[in-house]
Fold this sequence. Notes:
The chain is α/β, with parallel strands linked by helices.
Amino acid sequence: MSIDAVLGDLTTEHADALVNAANSSLLGGGGVDGALHAAAGPALLAACRRVRAEQWPDGLPVGEAVATEAGNLPARWVIHTVGPNRNAGQTDEALLASCYTRSLDVALTLGAHTIAFPAVGAGVYGWDAETAARVAVRAVAEHPRTGIERARFVLFSPRLYNAFSAELARLA
Length: 172
């Protein structure tokens, strides 16, 4: 699997699956979550409501992942994952890593070959760029995947892009 990072807009990334840094309600929010919901149109919210009604009535737990159709996004699926909120005292890096590994697990069950990630937790949830990059890159690189051809980190700021690029360079 190739792993790379780009500075860009996740809502315009062409991939089989786009990962959403969601909140546990799955009903939209700010940051990446709000941007994906806005770009996807009402079909994404409707799909999330079905997931809440049928699979996760109490909300998606931190570190877990679930897929929906992607609405108007340039992808087949959106994989929603809930990162730990460092600002609220959720500082377990294993939970942050689980966002990536569970998203890859879900992507594989869907038959996805390409996946695009944001920097889960690196926005309002308070994870610093360097820690977010280290945890994310290692989780993706060490995942025992079969079938994923490309994983891409699509990062919205130069600070995040630089941190992820540095971590990918260390990995190489």
